[in-house]
Amino acid sequence: MNYWPLIGVAVVVAGFLARLNPMLVVVAAGFASGVAAGLSIPDLLALVGESFVSNRMPMLVILTLPVIGLLERAGLREHAHRWILGLRGMNVFRLLTTYLGLRQLLAMFGLTTVCGHAQTVRPLIAPMAEAAAEKTRAALDAPTRERTRAMAAATDNVGLFFGEDVFLAFGAVLLIQGFLAKSGIVLEPLHIALWALPTAIAAFAIHAVRLARFQGRLAAARETNDA
Amino acid sequence: MLKLAHVWWLAAIILGAAAFFDARHRRWANATFWAIMTVVFAGGDAILAAHQAGNRLPTQIVGAAVVVLALIAGTGIMPRASTANVDAATSQAARLGHRLFGPALLIPAVTALVYIVAKYVPPLGPLLVETKQASLVALAVGCSVALVAATMITRSAPTQALRESSRLLDALSWAVVLPMLLAALGAVFAATGVGDAVASLVGMIIPTDSRVACLVAYALGMIVFTVIMGNAFAAFPVMAGGIGLPLLVKQHGADPAVIGSLGMLTGYCGTLLTPMAANFNIVPAVLLELKSQYGVIREQWPTAIVLAFVNTVLMYFLAFR
Question: Where do the TM regions start and end (chain A) (predicted)?
Answer without folding.
Answer: 52-71, 158-180, 192-212
